[in-house]
Fold:
Amino acid sequence: MAEVHGQVMAQLDQFPRLVLDQLPTPLLPLPNLSADLARSVYIKRDDLLGPAMGGNKARKLDYLMAEAQALGAVKVATFGGLQSNHARMTAAVARQLGMEPHLFFFEHRPQHLRGNLLINQLLGAHMHFIPFGGGGGASMTLETTNWLVRWVARARLGRHYFIPVGGHNRLGCLGYVRAALEIENQARGLGIEDAWVVMPAGTGGTLAGILAGLTLIGSSLKPIAIDVGKLWKTFSKSIAHMATELCLCLQVSHTIAASDIPLIEGRYVGERYGIPSAAGNAAIERLARLEGILLDPIYTGKAFAGLLDQVKQGGLGRDGPLIFWHTGGSPGLFAFPEQWSDPAGDIWLEVDLG
Ligand SMILES: Cc1ncc(COP(=O)(O)O)c(C=O)c1O
Structure:
């Protein structure tokens, strides 16, 4: 395997990349959760990556912003949901590189800018709120949505470097092929084999990259993603197409079919994308209280709820190790303070000093 690993890495190195991050991110055991679930659980800390409170988009932006810089971009534009971590991190990296960030949101401007929106404001990002209705509901494919927004951004900004939602194109997703090689090395070092690797899927680029990378090197790790949005029409097909394109980019002709995509769709979304779910919130509290690690209510909380439920249902086998890929998103916690306030929670001890 070492030889193939080296070949894939050599292909990856052909693509210019900024080194914005401290890599590798830690792969750590979760001893208290492991005792609770009676099986070994590890966490991959991509929440520790990147600027302005970090997250998984750092790995995609390493490649995307290298291209923006090489093209001499002055303005960079992208889009997402109101609590898009990708938009926030794109704005931060753009500022780091002296570019002007433009973020498009297809919703009304909220009265209060909270969570990621507050950070965008601090970064001086230009936020364009265009209330088209926010899309979603799987009424369009991811590819059509990107095509439409690219057109809107061009009409509004003129010349700029456009990044698709979630940094989702071949170049961005190469960041997660690289991450697959990284986790395989770490897992081997810790003696972890045949582990399920559970992650959230928003645009599916993280999964596509990891799946392509692990497949190319013949890893025993088994990726599986929890859909957090019910956002896209023919989602598995889109992920399969991206994973196949990534293999091609790295000079390997290997077709990944929609039926090969390990995606649990719809089941752990709750009401809809961008709205916290009761199960997600409970999962956030469980990990916080057992391990002191914070997830977020839009992506990782829902994905972790999926992991816990799948363990209960036997969907991830009865034993054997599990790895949860923490993709970040902590600013989202501060966007929904009402989810966590507990008026009955405080006990006041009244002392009569008279
Ligand atoms: C914190 C967090 N986790 C997971 C994801 C999903 O990643 P992907 O879009 O690559 O599926 C995103 C963004 O969409 C995110 O911000």
Remarks:
- The first helix runs from residue 2 to 12.
